[in-house]
Amino acid sequence: MQVSLHGQRTVPSPQYSPTQQADIAHLSTISVSLAIALHVVVISAIVAYRKYKATVLRQRVQHLNHLWHLDSSRKLT
Known about the structure:
By secondary structure, this protein is mainly alpha-helical. It has one helix at 18-76, and strands at 2-3, 9-10.
């Protein structure tokens, strides 16, 4: 640390080299890419879950419909 004319200590600002700036830009690119990938994965999971739930509901309705037809045909005979 250096002492200025007014008696206050000053901290020299760090000097960045071009390689340090390139590393920071590279990390920024990686973090943005990971953030986008995370959003894509979450949205895909939500869409897949909704399709799964719709398929399960459709199968349950078909099964109940089948049981209802069996029961109604038994009552007729």
